[in-house]
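Standup notes, protein team

Yesterday: finished cleaning the Muntiacus reevesi set.
Today: DNA-3-methyladenine glycosylase structure.
Blockers: none.

Input for DNA-3-methyladenine glycosylase:
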Amino acid sequence: MGQKKQRLLKARRHQSPSDGTQKPSPKELHLGLPATLGPTRSIYFSNPEGHPARLGSAFFDQSAVSLARAFLGQILVRRLDDGTELRGRIVETEAYLGPEDEAAHSRGGRQTPRNRGMFMKPGTLYVYIIYGMYFCMNVSSRGDGACVLLRALEPLGGLEAMRQLRHALRKGTTGRALKDRELCNGPSKLCQALAIDRSFDQRDLAGDESVWLEQGPPMPSEPAVVAAARVGIGQAGEWAQKPLRFYVRGSPWVSVVDRAAERDTQAGATASSHEDFNCLQTK
């Protein structure tokens, strides 16, 4: 009887208390979050809401040209104050190489309060104003003063909100509704559609809660990337002609199509295919 009483007393300790709450068992006490959550070492980390993988700091730590190409196909996300998420696939970028690049704001290695973001760690936003009214968004890359300009997006989510933002922020606006392909087909249009302004300057794209980059979904085939001259830098001498603008060939959301560069890209791809075929024939 003594052993039975002991078992009954032990069972009562784990019964629900009088207030109706259930007392957790010793095993259940160990089923919470781990004591510490260290930073991930992967370039990807999962969003707590279950969104696709978000790109971390290591993704941005590459040269401007490499990063400009790597951006193509990734998803830029902007969360508005009311929780609305705007999404677009990056289809066009421009690389700026730093002090040696006569078209870069950091040419000659000059640093100012305006361009400080270009000299900060890779993944830092550099947002500047042009014509006194429009904004452009860049992302710093590896190398002091080097960055990538985001030029165009393929809108994927929140298009109506983008349309309303563009309508509210356009100068000399008319009553005509914007077509989908007109929402983000230019660096300033992109900023208008996503409500990006100077307040985003020097934010960390790898850790910000209002704007970030997610890994794009796998494509059925590798898209052809066109390397063309940058746009609107005619005063930069030979640098104005360097092929440092990259875009997805055939995308209707690109801001400026360069037919000559596309022909060169096609010719290069054809020549490469012929070389591969000849190599197989000689083996």
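Follow-up from PR in the comments: The CA atoms of residues 32 and 175 lie 55 Å apart.
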